[in-house]
Amino acid sequence: MGDSDARDPSPVDPLPSPVEGAGVAGCGILGIQCRQWPVSVGDFHAGLLQVILAHERDDPGLTVSNVGGWHSHPDLHLWAAPCVAPLLERIRAAAAGVTAEPMRMHAWANVLRNGGHHLAHRHGEAWWSGVY
Fold first, then answer.
1. Read out DSSP for 81-116?
2. How far apart are CA 63 and CA 121, in angstroms?
3. What is the per-residue burial (b if ≥16 Cβ within 10 Å, else e) of 106-126?
4. What is the pLDDT of residues 49-108, one digit of tens each?
5. Residue 77 CB: number of other CB atoms within 10 A?
6. CA dist., res. 24 & res. 69, Å (int)
């Protein structure tokens, strides 16, 4: 991390440009699905980014598998910000497509800047996990 403050929220790499249209595509790896957000939800991405960076600024977070960067508590699914609800709806819809079991959710945010990364890890007894 050098001499910079690991919690300094600037600069942040911009979100990748969303792909036109929403859908599911194979990622070339057996059993992995890629879901793309439509361009029309650009405000959603920006709002979620602002909410996550505000949590990073206000909460020291956790060190789990992250080396450098910031890891929120596993309560993102309980955050009151309006932009969190569409994310949770999409997660639940994706889960409904692959399992008939009731789902227990744990969700968190990570902010990684230059040099930040995750160590190899697993998610306990989780049947599957996802990344936004």
1. -TTHHHHHHHHHHHHHTT--S--------EE--TT-
2. 13
3. ebbbbbbbeebeeeeeeeeee
4. 999 999 999 999 999 999 999 999 999 999 999 999 988 988 888 888 777 677 788 899
5. 15
6. 30
Asked whether 56 and 21 are in contact (CB, 8 A), the reply is: no
Residue 109 resides in a domain = yes
* Residue 6 included in any domain: no
pTM of the predicted model as reported, rounded to 2 decimal places = 0.71
Question: What's at 70, amino acid-wise?
Answer: W
Q: Give the count of domains, the chain.
A: 1
- 8 A C-beta contact, residue 112 and residue 66: yes
Q: Say if 31 falls within a structural domain.
A: no
- Dist. CA 104–CA 48, nearest whole Å: 22
What range does the domain containing 67 cover? 42-118
Q: Is 70 within the bounds of a domain?
A: yes
